[in-house]
Amino acid sequence: MLMRKSNQGMAMLMALVMMAIASSLAVAIWYKNQLSFARIHNLQKTYQAKHYAQGMLLWASDILREDYAQDESSHDSNLDPWLRGVQGMAVEDAILSGTLVGLNDRFNVNNVIINGQQSPEHVEYLRRLLLLLELDVHIADKIIDWIDTDQVPQSNGAEDFVYLAKSPSYQTSGQYFKHIEELSLLDGLSLEDFDRLAPYISTLPVHNQATRMNVNTMRPVMFSALTPLITREMAVRLFQNGVAKYINIESFEDDPVIRYAVPRALKTKFRQLISTQTLHLQASSLVQMEGSEFVQYALLERKPTGDARILSRSLSPYLPKPLVN
Ligand SMILES: [Ca+2]
Ligand SMILES: [Ca+2]
Predict the structure, then answer these.
(1) CA-CA distance, 129 to 123, in Å (whole number)?
(2) Are 277 and 49 a contacting pair, CB within 8 Å?
(3) What's the predicted TM-score (pTM) here?
(4) pLDDT one-digit tens code per residue, 274-290
(5) Cα separation of 260 and 241, whole Å?
C-alpha cells in the first residue's frame, strides 16, 4: 500500500517535472520564434530601405540627364535645378529625401599625380591654396608622398619611416586618397588644419587625366590660388556672389578680369585646372521608416550624355559635413 502511494507520488512528481520542462521549452520556442520574426522583420525593412535608397540614386541620375537635355551648352552653376533635391517625399511606408551636391567647386588633391608622374600645375596650385589658407605649404609634399608609390620623400615630405615611428604606427597608402577623412592621417596636419583645408578640397578618382574645377561654383580663394595676378578683389568679382554662369571656358577668359590681368600662356595653363562643368557629385539619400533612418551616400560621375554612374558608395559623407539634415 505504502509502496503504491510512493509510486503514485513519484509519477505525479515526474508528470509535474515533465510539464515544467515542456512549458519552459514552449516559452523558449516562442521566444526564439519572436526573435526570428523580429530579425526577419528588421532584415525586410533594411532591404526595403536599401531598395528605396537605390531608387533615389536612379532619380539623381535621371535629373542630371534632364539637366543636359534642357541645357545644350552643358555648363553647370549654383542655379541648376538639380541642386534643390527632394525633401520629404512620402511613399507607401517611408519618407524619402535626397540631395545632390557638386564636388567640382574644390581642388582634387589626387590631381598632384597623373599617370604616375607629378603634375607641376596641380602641385603649384595646391601650394598656393595652402599659402592663402595660411596652412603649412609642406603639406603638398606630404600629399605627394602619401600617393606616390616610392619611398623617397619629397624635400619636405614624409614616407613610411615617419608614420612607422608614430604610436600607433601606420604606413602611407601609395595610391590615391579614397576619402577626404584619410587626409587627417597626414604628418603635420593637425585636426584644426584639416578642418580649415577640408572645405576646399576633394578626393576624386583620377583616370589618366586630371579632374577640373568648375569656375561657376569656385569660391574667391580658389580663383586667387590660380595665380597671384588674381587679387582678392578680382576673385570676389569673378565669384559673382555665387551666381556666376559662364557658358564655356572662352566666356570665362573673356571676362574683363581675366582678359586684362592674365597673359595668354597662363590662360592655356588654366585649362588644365578649370572648366564650366560639374562632372562629379555626391548624392545622398535619407529613408525614414518606422522611426528609424537609413542614410546612404554615393559618389557620381557624369557621362557625356549627362546621366551619372556610381563610382562608389559610403555610409559616411564624401564631404566633411553631413549633407542630409
Ligand atoms: Ca610614397
Ligand atoms: Ca615619394
Answers:
(1) 10
(2) no
(3) 0.82
(4) 999 999 999 998 999 88
(5) 21
Q: What is the arithmetic mean of pLDDT over 242-258?
A: 94
Rounded Cα–Cα distance for residues 115 and 211 (Å): 13
| 153 CA from centroid of ligand 2 (Å) | 4
DSSP SS3 for 310: strand
SS3 of 58, please? helix
| Distance between Cα 172 and ligand 1 center (Å) | 6
Residue 269 CA to its chain's centroid (Å): 28
CA angle 28, 30, 33 (to 5 degrees): 105
Half-sphere exposure of residue 20: CA atoms within 13 angstroms, side-chain side? 6
CA–centroid distance, residue 159 to ligand 1 (Å): 6
Residue 41 or residue 114, greater confidence:
114
Ligand nearest the Cα of residue 154 is 2
Alpha carbon of 202 to ligand 1 centroid (Å): 20
Provide the 3-class DSSP secondary structure of residue 320. coil
- Domains of the chain with bracketed CATH: 118-201 (1.10.40.60)
- On the 0-12 / 13-18 / 19+ scale of CB atoms within 10 A, 90 is exposed
